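Try this one yourself first.
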C-alpha cells in the first residue's frame, strides 16, 4: 500500500465516504493547474471551463478536498487562504510584499531549521502552511535594501 504511487484523487474521496462528482474533479483540477489559488481564483478557473458552478460550491468543495487530504492551504494574502495540492507541499512559500511574487523554496533548503525545531522543542513543522513574507531579490535591488525590515504592521 505505501509505495511511491500516489493514491488516485477519486479513491481518496471514496475512502473517506465522499462521492466523486464532476464538480469535485473540476475544483481539484483547478488547484492542480493553478499550483496556488485562493477560492476566488479557483472559482474563476472553474468558471472559465463550465457554467453553473458558484463560489459557495467552490468553498464547500475546497473544504471537502482538504478534509480528505487532497489539498491543503497556506496564507499568502490577508483574507482568503491559498490552496495547493498536498502532493506538492514539500515547499515553503516566499512571498514578496512589493511585487506579490510567490516563490516556492524546496523543503531541503530549510531542513536545518526544521530539524532544529524537531529536536528542541520537539515541534513538527507543517511546511506547506508556511509562508515567509519579505522582499524578493529583484525588489530589494531596486529599492536598495538588502534585507527588508518593515516597520509598518500589515499583519493583523
Ligand atoms: Zn491556515
Ligand atoms: Zn504551496
Ligand atoms: Zn518582489
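Now uncover the answer:
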Amino acid at each position: 500500500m505505501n509505495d511511491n504511487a500516489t493514491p488516485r484523487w477519486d479513491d481518496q474521496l471514496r475512502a473517506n465516504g465522499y462521492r466523486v462528482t464532476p464538480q469535485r474533479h473540476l475544483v481539484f483540477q483547478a488547484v492542480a493547474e493553478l499550483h496556488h489559488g485562493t477560492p476566488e481564483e479557483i472559482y474563476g478557473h472553474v468558471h472559465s471551463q463550465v457554467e453553473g458552478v458558484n463560489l459557495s460550491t467552490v468553498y464547500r468543495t475546497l473544504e471537502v478536498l482538504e478534509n480528505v487530504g487532497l489539498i491543503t492551504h497556506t496564507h499568502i494574502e490577508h483574507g482568503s487562504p491559498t490552496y495547493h495540492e498536498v502532493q506538492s507541499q514539500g515547499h515553503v512559500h516566499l512571498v514578496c510584499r512589493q511585487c506579490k511574487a510567490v516563490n516556492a523554496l524546496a523543503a531541503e533548503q530549510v531542513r536545518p531549521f526544521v530539524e532544529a525545531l524537531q529536536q528542541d522543542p520537539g515541534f513538527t513543522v507543517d511546511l506547506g502552511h508556511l509562508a515567509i513574507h519579505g522582499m524578493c531579490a529583484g525588489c530589494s535591488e531596486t529599492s536598495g535594501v538588502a534585507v527588508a525590515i518593515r516597520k509598518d504592521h500589515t499583519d493583523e
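Discussion: The longest strand covers residues 91-96. Residues 90-156 form a domain with the Dna Ligase; domain 1 fold (CATH 3.30.1490.190).
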